[in-house]
Structure of Integrin beta:
Amino acid sequence: PCKRTLLIEASLFHSQNFIKPGEQEAARCDTWAQLIERGCMEEDIISPKNYFSSSKNISLSNTALDKGEPIQLRPQEVNLKLRPGLPHTFTLDFQRVEGYPVDLYYLMDLSYSMEDDLRSIKTLGNKLFNALQGITKKGQIGFGSFVDKTVLPFTNTNPEKLNKPCAETEMYCQPAFGYRHVLSMTGNKAEFESEVNKQRISGNLDSPEGTLDAIMQAAVCGERIGWRNSSTRLIVLTTDDGFHMAGDGKLAGILEPNDERCYMDNNLYSKSNEMVCDDMRRTPISIIGPQQNYMKHTIRDYEKYELSKMIPKSEVGVLSADSHNVVELIKNAYNRLSSKVTVTHDALPDNVRVTYTPLCPEGGPSGDKGVCNNVGVSFNVTVTADECMQSEISFLIGPLGMKDKLKVSLSTLCKCECNDPVTVDSPYCNGKGQVNCGMCSCKAGFVGQKCECSIGEKDESSLRAACRKDNGTECEGRGDCVCGICQCYTLPGGSTYYGTNCECENESCEKFQNKLCGGNGKCRCKNCECKPGYEGTACQCKKSDEQCRTPSGSVCSGRGTCKCNQCKCMEGYQRPYCLTCPACQTTCITKGKCIECLGFQTGPFSKNCSQACTSISEFKMVETLPPGKPCDVRDVESCRVFFAIKQLDGEDNYTAQILKTRECPKLPNIYAIIGGSIVGVTVIGILILLFIKVLFTLQDLKEYRKFMNEAQKTRWSENKNPIFQEATTTVANPTFSGE
């Protein structure tokens, strides 16, 4: 009977005879005032209220107890049962206990630039313990150190540099590391001084350090660090530079976010080079962050922006050059942290909201956290469930940096407890069901508002399907499906929905002058049925076509209908008389083939011209066309046909005038073409021969000039040729005998 999600202040009337015939069951749910006005008796109205109880509410402690844990938050456990949308407010008290135990973890940057600070800390052990005893008699102190991730570009990965990342002149330098836990919580001053004296400086490449990795491991490794369950947890962070953010991990290819688990191997953080950290908001730790006074930009980052955003419970101070003022800084920062109380909650479902209103003068407005500057404060906590929840949930509320928490168990009230008499076969349900909050819960095989329908062996879903139009909503949401037939609801005006699927009603037709159907018709299933002499969607017009008639006497030029004394033209035609159609294709193109057929009996329609061209009711062959630009088309003989066409009344009705004379192109002179071709080929051949002749002539001329140049360069020598032999002449007298 009630929706799963109840509205604020919505109530239910569970009397059996409250619903009138044709009225939907949802009418039972309304505001208290509306139900009373409609005649409901107060005892019959079901309006669940929020339920609140405190299952654990121990009084606050004034001082730290020797045995057991002191109580600083009240109440400790509450149970809430809420109506969706209806908020509930209760008071949360907090009283800081005097002398509450404090665990202080000194976390120091051991990069090379902190060398002088390390020397100072080695001499300040006694002062640190005295300062801690001034805060509480139950104080413990621990020590840890950090540098940076041992990967490029943060640290030099050369094996020699990893083993000794300091300057060559530095004798005492320990290998590079990310975070090292040195000393667990202890109250022994000598043990603290001994471990701190063993520490040596280290180094890295860039300015920012691996600070967040160290803080996270110190916060989550509770057993290693030695955090007590009932103590204020402080981390004193000393460094002279900024810290790496998650985005810096991309430089070294480290993308995996920190999973807030402890990874300590031999007191060293083993996942330093595998994870990046940038979210410290859930750590239950307060941070005191002293910074070197010569790093002013870093101090502003820690103080105003990064550190306070990432760790809400944090304070920042300025160290002197040698850190001798660290004790005073810790005292001042602790006093500021202990005087400020910030209350908030852990993760919540999307449908649950929690807001806090501080009950202190400087508390400020309500919000998702409450802040007060006092040791004893109260907050109004308002919890709202926006919708019904299937099961009970629980969440914790408490001050940041403190162990004390309030456990809230939350469930929702989404059922109406009507306390109906237990009658199995109620007469109101025709003996076939039981009354539940004024409505019948029918036995198997029976359905209907009063279980009046017997479905027998039929499937109820198939009966309900008959009440859905086009597989839509059952009875259009305007009726109840009874035995496969829609029983329609009654409208507020007294009429009812009707139709097979309750799709019709007579109260939502269009109005004119604030009258349904203009007072000139009746509403029938969302449409107006006008009286004789009226028309229009709201019967707002008298029937008349006076403003729709053209000068020729036609109504809307035969290309539209007259509605409310205005033309409603066919698609493309324009008012007032539907004469022109700017978007339509021009008739010079669409009627060109018919003009060719009618005027010259050629073209694709020449065989059935009378049947294909009935849209041109009249045409004339004329010597001249009327003034204006004529239409022209080319026929099958490539001749241009000129004509003028005019549209008559009607959608496709034209008259045309066709020019008798066509403009045809002249035939080409074949002889001239052949002769010209021969002459052209001859001329081209001669030119080619001349061109070849010129090329050869130029080539010969070039060779001749080359020969002449070489001949001129020849020089003849006057020396005798060594192989030349002069000719000898021998004369012999054939008659000479030698005597």
Summary: Residues 270 and 634 are 91 Å apart (CA to CA). Residues 1-10, 291-305 have pLDDT under 50 and may be disordered. The two ends are 181 Å apart (CA to CA). The chain has 14 helices and 39 strands.
